[in-house]
Amino acid sequence: MNLIQKYYRLHNTLFNDKSILIALGPLALRLFLVPVFWVAGNNKIAGFEGVVGWFGPDGLDLPLPWAMAFLATATEIVGGALLLLGLATRWIAIPLMITMLVAIFSVHWPHGWQASHDLMSWGANADAEEALRRLGIAKDILREYGNYDWLTEKGHLASSNNGMEFGVTYFVMLLALFCSGGGKYFSLDYYLDKHFRPS
Question: Which end of the chain has the lower number of beta carbons within 10 A, N or C?
């Protein structure tokens, strides 16, 4: 047996259809996305009237702002719960992907790629250098006139860009779940599919 054959024997042993390893990818994606959508939905519930106003003519200028706010909130709350259970994973991925596309194009697109300004990243936009220069000035002022050590002991000051990086990342993760489903062994979809699949 040559080296290539040994490699594929090992590969096929580790990653066959019954291997638990192939179940871990969809599980990891689902568990990562659950708090993202659950928290976003609950934040919208807590400030629902403000969300409706932000979706309306004085903010994003989306049509039917109350309905859009309700749909976004419901999609995130229900989506978080279904992703946790691995139930109807492919179906809930669709409205969650739509929610991400709306966020990407209506909120984050004008800010470019980066979520936070970083000149070392390929996605730095034209404002990054100036934003970071101003952040440096703010830090200098705080060092001179404030308690900078206290302000930064729990985390560093950063310059948020609000770009589409996270929205696109969540969209890609949801697309992967749409293609794979909830995964084997750790999702209700897997057991329901086994139960209802024709023999």
Answer: C
Question: Is the Cβ–Cβ distance between 123 and 109 less than 8 Å?
Answer: no
3-state secondary structure of 50: helix
- Beta-bridged to residue 160, according to DSSP, are 116
Contact 170, 33 (CB under 8 A): yes
Q: Side chain identity at 1, as an amino acid letter?
A: M
pLDDT tens for residues 37-67?
A: 999 999 999 999 999 999 999 999 999 999 9
* pLDDT band at 171; cut points 50, 70, 90: very high
Asked if pLDDT for residue 199 goes beyond 80, the answer is no
Domain locations in the chain as residue ranges: 24-112+163-199, 115-161
10 Å CB burial of residue 164 (0-12, 13-18, 19+) is buried
DSSP 105: I
> What are the tokens at 65?
């702002």
